[in-house]
């Protein structure tokens, strides 16, 4: 993408009312914001997308070189732009993902201002939203926040006490093993990013020390098919958040670790350990040059395997109930067990030259002046519709279903939010007509 801001197009549904006023302002130019624009253009609603950097920049700038999708390509179903390649059950690599998104950007042709940071959104007493940005002030009848939920990297304060010669980076900054100094690498966190980065380093022959967290895992393939295919048939991806056993608590869950690398496979941390990767429990502190870990490695590995086997057992039940002809199932048996819980590691003896922090992000919606946030800064909403009239969210994990923060479910969410926007427009138009009469 160009480093210059896109100009606002002049097609149907894109021109504002003048003086910086639009019917809808969309904050964020990732797949969520572009999906909202797609449906607004279809409905002929004037709007503008405001993007802090460049369209879909996260996919271009915050992914490592060997990154690939962990869900099969057929799940890429952005609105009006389903995957059309010749490998629906494969996993697009980084460059292929960017090419897919470039095609979506060209198809949507959204009215957008790039390099435009929004610093404040506030609903005035007259019901109009005032939006302050680095490129001036705008107003809108309604606002859609499509900036995602992963804003501020989590790095613990203990990082400040690490020796200056140890290179530190967050998962969004990691690119490849060659970019790190020679020596061992400590990867902190075993969610999707942590497990895959640890694998990337391990496959490159680097010495890896992995602080294992509570992330679950799942199989890549089971009983002759991708597990995602089975779960789709079981309608798991259509389950709304209110019907999930954890209800809204599922939004706090760490994603299951698995990979689409080399055609897709399990990530088995026990196998990595048998091959030389050093596993510890959760990293808790650094004191006097010694890293301290929780004595929970065995429990974390066991819990991840229990989830793995539980998902497979649910597939077994589905196959049996529907009399499906499929290869026989099995139960995962651990290929490695920790001899004991190691809770300390002296940095001076470890050979660690770099640390990659893979413990997630926190949301930052401090620029939104609206009474919709809970104590953790997460917005209250129902399918993206907040209690504050005219304010919406889209693109958040489990906004409605598992696919809400992914390519697979964003179209359904965006369409629902735009339908709510249109209903509010009709309501206001009717009110104005009644007053005029």
UniProtKB/TrEMBL annotation:
Tree of life domain: Bacteria
GO molecular function: flavin adenine dinucleotide binding; monooxygenase activity
Gene3D superfamilies listed in its UniProt record: FAD/NAD(P)-binding domain
Keywords, ordered alphabetically: Oxidoreductase
InterPro entries in UniProt: Auxin_biosynth/cation_transpt, CHP04046_FMN-dependent, FAD/NAD-bd_sf
Presence of keyword Protein biosynthesis: no
Pfam families per UniProt: Pyr_redox_3
Protein's name in the database: Putative flavoprotein involved in K+ transport
Organism: Paraburkholderia phenazinium
